[in-house]
UniProtKB/TrEMBL annotation, chains A, B, C, D, E, F:
Name assigned to this protein: NAD-dependent epimerase/dehydratase family protein
Pfam name, any one: Epimerase
Domain NAD-dependent epimerase/dehydratase: from-to ranges: 10-170
Keywords for the protein's UniProt record, in alphabetical order: Carbohydrate metabolism, NADP
Length: 269, 269, 269, 269, 269, 269
């Protein structure tokens, strides 16, 4: 039997929506999958270790990452929230992950970034990874921060990152915008696999979308990853029939970031 | 039974080559298809209304467009002609269509533009929709005019246009150049469908070609339409066997615009 | 005494605002300056010939251009108007000039184009001559038409054009926007001189602006003309003192085309 | 006597190196200059108000900014430090400034950003404002954060920012690298003036450098500001004579960020 | 029976690795295939002529090329060697081929160039044919020379070239890098066919790779050739299983040129 | 007294047109200037050493370069010639210089390249250093070779090169084309000075032209050199008065390479 690629692989945010999806699917990649969340993760199964951990707690993060060889960093808040909460979970939390990774010699992180880093582009804009970011929320700003931090650690220390700007990863698209941004679970797993095992990635940004008919994002700057999505949202075409009713009644399709770009500014008072 | 997307959809140039092809194929998109031409269109069939109309006649155009929700503007002269004729049919005619559309609240026009807007590019030039136009004829200049007018109405009034730069839409390619520029009827209809029903298009230029082996045009600037041609001219490869006889004896392949780019200047004396 | 460069040089629109400015200044360039307008031009002075002519009259244009070696085409309507008027004066009129020039072997035309070809760009957009046009008026669309026609004649027949996209050519800037778009009369004349006498120009677009502090247009695509403006609107800085009152009260500065971009659609009813 | 452009203008970081330089020079721009720092600012002089304030204290920031019309945000830590300190002063502090500005209707902020946002570019890279950031320090990452936040507030709320990426603003260059990155005090003040009073800026990035012989940064994307530096580091050429000793002994010139790009990772243990 | 496209087609380097592969496969393209090498080629078979020839011998080359209509130039040294040997075989040899082709009226050459013209790009660089060359060896420099010479002959004389930058053309990939650069024999033959029979090619650079998952090269600048590879190295995925062992132990994947880019400088002493 | 920057500086081609100009002007840069040519150089003056040397003689080149710290490589044939002569003097000669430089630890070479590397661009093309080369002669091809070799040595060994693509360096322009391409002797010397003493250059291409009104070349990719020409060909405007006689009678202005691009192919028979 072939050895698994990693001895220890860390998945943060393992209790989250995508974390649950990934929990079983990533097992073939490591002898031990370390699952971390601030929420309850239940019992550890075979090949798992569970760490309940606030990523804003630097010492706890350092301890959790001992012996880890690579990280799938899905932890933190995954939607809009107060700036204070975002600051703690996403900004400080990510900084703790990277500093621990650097200190402990982890070689690669796959960072769950988001389309909300570029959420204020219009639907007629077709962009690649070099387009200036235009975040649509504190959440989006925090993902930009994570990418900049990753860029810094790569240039400074050689710690590699693939920043996966996830579109909409659900069982199926929920509205017209998600016909564009949809990332099937199978394609998500494949994107992670390519990101983890490509020979050399430096700091790479990959847009996480399936092979949908409409595309807003050009992945040619990540061609060295070899990501080839197998699914397409076109299987759900019938759910969104042709209509002469144009954008205004569902403005969420106007921006890459959808409803985020239309939301009110929120801040803890 | 599902309602059709539009109540009234106008097709101008309905008696022309492509107009005849489209007459039946677009019926599923509207309760009533208004068919317009300066030439005879025969009897109206079920779900059709027929208007014989000179597009250069502003009042007639205004009347014809009452209640219309969207336009497939294929009318005018579709090949080279005297400047005076082009001026009337293509320039004045298109201006009348747009002004009426604006006044009557039409939301979207699909404009039958042409590869002759860029006909003076060479076959080794691979261009996208932002390449400066290089028309090869008065006809091509008039299509550039139509695009500029459409851009103006979008920026000024919010009236949306997809400008479809049609390559060579025939049952099959007639020469080597058309192996590159060929647009099958099925793909034409699909391009129109995407153009009519995409959620938001602003002013978009789409090159109308099938999925041929050789390509001169890059449609990435229209990626938000999701146009995915199904046909390819490669099915006709056997009609144009390999040959060591190079371009000079058939110079029409030298320019995107083919024979147009090689024609003499014509003007009414 | 050195011979003048041209025997006969035509200036159309000679009774217009800029035509009057140019009337004397271009005399050193030709033995005979042919001055044309639909309006009265007064008495011919030494070295002048005067032709009252509707540019929409093809035969008259043909006659006027006999023996002419080069053209400064400033004729037509120079501000927004009904489409019909624009169609006649600017579209048909320019077509007549080009066809006559081609038939009579004129080698070069300097076409008075306008910033209104790109009037819907925002003030934060810095564009060059390859940026897709975004006209802000029927007037702007007609100037786009003229440029496309000029491109066509160059590719087809070798007739050369410099299209001078004039900003705001007045004795001094009248508002903040004109601080950006101002073209002094001296710089206008120099731009015309470079355009007429550069060795080979093909079809070149030159933005007509002085060496102002703020710039919206990059002339590097016309570097082969060697146009080096000597004046700057900064001499008028004191007329527009610093203010913390921001754009909204004078939105004309928001778009390259200024008030044109904010005007209502006008059309002859 | 002409009214000053602003009633109240806030300068944060007023006790810092550049803050002291600016304290007197910005007086002509406002009836009252509000000077803020966490350090002592001495006595308020005529036309000044002094606020000692930790920018990480949201309520204090809110209070300080009442009635303020525009902000020169120079506050925070201006060199490398522990991540925790940077997080508080630069990330939370800047978030507080922006949120208060938004809530209170401030229209424009000039943000003192830094060349360290792009510090890992090499000296042979010539970049403009659209080049992906490559921060060289936690400090640089925090400046990227500020820029992203500013982009977000512009897209979301219309609050405008000029992000001034300051090179090296000292009385004179201290080493060869600063011959490239030097920004004279006079040019700094002029850059601030242009940034404050340009008619419309949206979110603009301006590289802050004088008119030095060697340049790493192209300001064409900020051409709408009209920034024209008057000084040049070439006046100090004699301080750095020609030498056949090449880069290795002074590697700080190798990267845009100089010594920052060569520093060790620092983190509070 | 249909006539073959060429009467005489020359293949140089016919005794080399790829020459042997091509010997039979190109027979359908010509009545007579002239096979040339400095090494022994065995007996001529039907439809073949054999010429043993040092390409550095100008008179011999001239004689060999009489009556030839097109050339597949695979001759010369195909790996790193001393500069003197490269100079003779690849630089002088190629110059002799081109001058003879020009003098004898040959219309098109397919030049076997190499990925080693761009071998010093990193694996994260995705480049097209306009990227400045970065050769990784004397061999690579000699291929750049051949391309420049071909460009010169095209501009000067109209002699056309497709420069095929061959990746790794072997029965199967031998290491991870070749998973990216692999060109199957079938795809090689198809690339040659398209290059020989496309209607007009001017001077075109085509990257020779199969449809592999990972790509470093963008062939859009050669879209007019219609090259559509049928094979993919993904069929060999199992030979290179996922691994958490990253680049350093097999640095050859770091550069497009692989081991060439890591080799020592060699020179004949 | 300040020490000179170099102990030994080599100038090849010292008996050529520019070599003679440079002989005295470069003395301030080195204790000993080694002057090399195949032609007679007369007596060595103070601070000079003279080596008569065929650059194609590798051993002689090696000997000549002992102790040399930097090279101004102006040797070889400086105009069109037979391929054989170019091969020996420019290709083999330059290879010998670079290999000796590498073996002996020379740190930087300034290579006298030429506008003839891009001679087939048209006068309306404005290009920078990343534009694909289009040589107009064997001479131009040999200069492309030199640049590729320099790129190779930089990537492989760290030996730095500035490739100075000299326009037309004469006391004054001889025709209209040289009004564009002129490089005054003072500006040539300044370009060499910047190239020799800039802190880090890697492989940099600099177009050698004065600050002329018309420009074909954009030096922004060499902005790190700080080359600021002081002279302009506009001082010679009176020698080339305005004329309505257009390009055809002096076609040399049509291409960057001038008469070279129009010359016949020459080859030793």
């Amino acid at each position: 039997m072939m050895a698994k690629p990693f001895k220890r692989l860390l998945l943060t945010g393992a209790a989250g929506g995508l974390g649950k999806v990934l929990r079983d699917r990533i097992k073939p990649w490591a002898d031990v999958v370390v699952l971390s969340d601030i929420a309850d993760l239940g019992e550890a199964r075979e090949g798992e270790e569970i760490v309940v951990c606030d990523l804003g707690d630097k010492a706890a993060v350092m301890k959790m990452m001992e012996g880890v060889e690579a990280v799938l960093h899905f932890g933190g808040i995954s939607t809009e929230n107060t700036f204070e909460n975002i600051l703690h979970a996403n900004i400080l939390g990510t900084a703790n992950i990277y500093e621990a990774a650097h200190k402990l010699g982890v070689k690669r992180i796959v960072f769950a970034s988001s389309n909300h880093t570029v959420g204020f582009y219009r639907n007629t804009d077709y962009i690649d990874a070099t387009a200036p970011t235009r975040p649509d929320s504190f959440y989006g700003v925090s993902k930009c921060f994570g990418e900049q931090l990753a860029s810094y650690y790569w240039d400074r220390t050689g710690l590699e990152t693939v920043s996966l700007r996830i579109g909409s990863s659900f069982p199926e698209p929920k509205d017209r915008r998600m016909m564009v941004t949809w990332l099937s679970y199978d394609d998500l797993v494949e994107a992670l696999r390519q990101s983890l095992f490509a020979t050399r990635v430096g700091f790479t940004i990959l847009f996480g979308m399936s092979n949908n008919d409409v595309a807003w994002w050009d992945n040619s700057k990540a061609a060295h990853l070899g990501y080839k999505p197998k699914d397409s949202s076109s299987q759900f075409d019938a759910s969104f029939p042709d209509s002469g009713q144009y954008p205004d009644q569902n403005a969420s399709v106007t921006y890459h970031g959808g409803a985020f770009a239309l939301a009110e500014v929120r801040y803890k008072d």
